[in-house]
Amino acid sequence: MLKILQQTSRWLASNASFFIIAVAVFTFLIPGVFGWVRGNTQTIILGMIMLTMGLTLTTDDFRILARRPLDILVGACAQFLIMPCVAWLLVRVFRLEPALALGILLVGCCPGGVSSNIMSYLCHGDVAFSVGMTCASTLLAPVMTPLLMELTAGAIIEIDAIGMFLNILIVTIIPVGIGCFLNYTYSHRKSFPTVQSLMPGVSVICLACIVGGVISTVHDALIARGLLLFIWTFAVVFCHNSLGYLLGWTSGYLAKFNTAKKRTISIEVGMQNAGLATVLASTFFAVQPLSILPCAISCAWHSVSGTILAGLFQKWDERKMPD
Q: What does pTM read for this prediction?
């Protein structure tokens, strides 16, 4: 039974994008299935995702922050400068309505996504740098995300910066901290690596539940507004994500990073924690329910695009290898 669970976890980690998209399509056809994923339930599920992240982090991962301060500084600045600015620009270029603007701005102001570490590994990036960037952006998120939302979206809606700070603290920092504590305390036990091996699958299932809950929430609005609303929103998410990859790589180039680090910073900047954005939109922008739509699309698309980009980097390496 345990081997089956481990195999399932590996399959889910390898096919995360396919699984999440399948859940999204299924929920669109039968919206009531994930109707329970709302409010506090959604927050708890995100907390579980962050707990799985903490369970895989070690003290060595946090030492990276001290050992490579310049790399982490460049990465953090790129993360919290490029994505909010690109989101702000796209809101104006696409002339988005307030609800959709809030959603894409929120995605842009969130920290890097957890699955970016996996993508960095797949494309032969600098995994230690990736973990360090994820840790740094997650630790900075309680302050940076509310501050950036106040700057970029304050004219659209009143931002509860203190409430957002506390919410991010509860659903990210505390679960990650608990996971790290458990890892530090029980990592010497033989059974603990087995628990860790199941975490990728748990994380994917939790993210799929969040996406399913969001699709259930916006289902009626999507039906009422038609396919055009989805296509228009997806176009914005696609541009935001793609420009994040491109400008992230450019920032690595300007910093004179090697190839592995340029790939890593590209993926770290482009892939956002859209699950966190989804929970924040549901909690703080409930009066604008369509603000959740860009977050839900980002949840699915970032996994797809990250997999595609990692595959392209792999193909590039194969072409350069001598026969």
A: 0.84
